[in-house]
């Protein structure tokens, strides 16, 4: 009942507020109507269960989901906020690129203020336009604004969780080096462990990723960046950051319903509705659905469409994607 949609054009953001709803129809072609009610209920139950099992292992990039419907679904969602420094909009109260800590959602610093460069708005002028554009959005942060400090964020976590991290780093005037720190939240931000050092010049962004297992008893986790050195020797200037992520992997949760859910006749059309939510901490793209077409029915060509969510509208049905008792949908 679900066919292939276009690949690479849908990205489901890490928010339970975004719901992708797809519908499609199958037509009953069974010629034996005896016990049809019991058979139909079995088909619906098997189809729904099969889809939920698939939802537990739907391939989602950049990571794989491990949602298991039999073990509390996606678990506790973790997601760092404002990872590309797009908030707040507009210049800071201390100057075009100078923000107090209270003005920047999510982020804290041991420095006296937070420095955010805006490539689209052109500040700080003329320097920002002389550098490589940001990886994500229009803005990025300089690790230290005025003094040697640490830029960090605290997130609520569950002991034993696997947390995924990812970010991009670039030098200001040449090769700059910084280090990633992760650990418990204490009064001292430097009570965190050094996870990795990264060095990049000012010609291209370097992107780094990894995982962190939350230790026993650690319900709050700190994720921070500390400058190590810069090409100019001034540790308080340089080490630019963008597209920062720390959180749980993508996790697709799927529910399915059918209408009418009653006694049907040969030739009747059953409309299936499939709802998808990304309940994980990271964005998902390249998501693939597969679902069984019930025995005794056939897909109604042209009936598949996205009725809410990204790329709403009718979807085409490539013949090679509709096989006996199985159909696929690639939504991103």
Descriptive report:
The protein has two domains: 11-75 and 250-330; 98-247, Sandwich (Jelly Rolls), CATH 2.60.120. Helices cover 6% and strands 37% of the residues. The protein has one helix spanning 36-55; strands at residues 11-12, 19-28, 98-99, 108-109, 114-118, 139-142, 150-156, 162-170, 176-184, 193-200, 206-213, 220-229, 240-247, 252-259, 269-278, 284-285, 288-291, 297-299, 305-308, 313-314, 322-323, 326-330. Strands 2, 14, 15, 18, 19 and 20 form a six-stranded antiparallel beta sheet that branches. Strands 3-5-6-13-8-11 form a six-stranded antiparallel beta sheet, with no helix packed on it. The protein starts with 10 loop residues before the first strand and ends with a strand.
**What Rg do the Cα atoms give?**
25 Å
Name the helicity range: under 10%
CATH level 4 superfamily of the largest domain: Galactose-binding domain-like
Tell me the number of structural domains.
2
**Largest sheet: number of strands, sense, barrel closure:** 6 strands, antiparallel
Principal-axis shape? elongated
CATH architecture of the largest domain: Sandwich
Please, how many helices? 1
- Poorly predicted ranges (pLDDT <50, ≥5 residues)? 1-13, 27-72, 324-332
CATH hierarchy, class of the largest domain:
Mainly Beta
Distance between the terminal alpha carbons, to the nearest Å? Answer: 18 Å
Sequence of secondary-structure elements: EEHEEEEEEEEEEEEEEEEEEEE
Binned strand content = 35-45%
Give the rounded overall mean pLDDT.
76
């Amino acid at each position: 009942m679900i066919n292939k949609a276009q690949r690479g054009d849908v990205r489901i953001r890490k928010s339970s507020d975004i719901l992708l709803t797809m519908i499609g129809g199958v037509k009953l072609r069974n010629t034996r109507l005896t016990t049809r009610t019991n058979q139909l209920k079995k088909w619906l139950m098997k189809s729904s269960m099969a889809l939920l099992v698939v939802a537990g292992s739907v391939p989602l990039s950049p990571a794989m989901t491990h949602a298991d419907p039999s073990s509390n679904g996606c678990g506790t969602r973790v997601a760092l906020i404002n990872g590309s420094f797009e908030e707040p909009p507009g210049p800071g109260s201390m100057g075009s690129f100078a923000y107090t800590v209270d003005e920047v959602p999510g982020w804290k610093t041991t420095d006296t203020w937070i420095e955010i460069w805006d490539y689209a708005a052109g500040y700080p002028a003329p320097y920002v336009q002389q550098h490589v554009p940001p990886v994500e959005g229009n803005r990025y942060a300089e690790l230290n604004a005025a003094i040697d400090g640490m830029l960090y964020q605290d997130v609520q976590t569950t002991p034993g969780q696997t947390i995924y991290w990812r970010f991009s780093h670039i030098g200001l005037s040449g090769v700059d080096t910084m280090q990633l720190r992760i650990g418990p939240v204490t009064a001292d931000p430097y009570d965190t462990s050094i996870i990795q050092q990264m060095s990049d010049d000012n010609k291209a962004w370097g992107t780094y990723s990894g995982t962190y297992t939350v230790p026993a008893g650690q319900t709050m986790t700190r994720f921070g960046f500390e400058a190590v050195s810069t090409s100019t020797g001034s540790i308080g200037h340089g080490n630019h950051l963008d597209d920062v992520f720390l959180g749980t992997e993508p996790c697709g949760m799927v529910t399915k319903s059918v209408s009418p859910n009653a006694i049907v006749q040969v030739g009747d059309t059953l409309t299936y509705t499939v709802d998808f939510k990304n309940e994980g901490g990271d964005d998902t793209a390249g998501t693939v659905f597969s679902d069984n077409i019930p025995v005794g029915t056939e897909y109604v060509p042209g009936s598949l469409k996205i009725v809410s969510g990204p790329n709403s509208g009718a979807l085409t049905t490539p013949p090679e994607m509709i096989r006996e008792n199985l159909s696929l949908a690639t939504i991103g």
